[in-house]
Design a protein that fits this description.
Layout: H1 2-23, H2 37-46, H3 50-56, H4 58-80, H5 82-95
Helix pairs in contact: 1-4, 1-5, 2-3
């Protein structure tokens, strides 16, 4: 039972993280992507203002969106291989 819940929670985590990573760089719901306090702090402390410019670029936003798509694909793969993942976790817990 614990193994099933572990796989279910992993699927939910991948789906939620994937949706966030797809939407966050482009949507204003989470705030403007380039006006980020942490980003300004890191660029200021490192002495490299190009960090701010790079993170605000559409290339970086596309890369973050790509990671979100990858998370969604992992969740879909886990859904289709649910029983296999549960069996692997059960076998691993029996060995321990």
């Amino acid at each position: 039972m614990v193994e099933r819940l572990t796989v279910i929670f992993f699927i939910i985590l991948c789906l939620l993280l994937g949706m966030y990573l797809i939407l966050a760089p482009w949507d204003m719901l989470f705030g403007q992507w380039s006006n980020n306090y942490l980003l300004a702090f890191v660029a200021d402390k490192s002495g490299i203002p190009a960090i701010h410019k790079a993170v605000a670029s559409t290339w970086f936003r596309g890369a973050v969106t790509g990671l979100g798509v990858l998370n969604i694909l992992i969740a879909v793969w886990e859904v289709f291989n649910f029983n296999k993942s549960v069996r692997l976790l059960q076998a691993d817990s029996e060995r321990s």
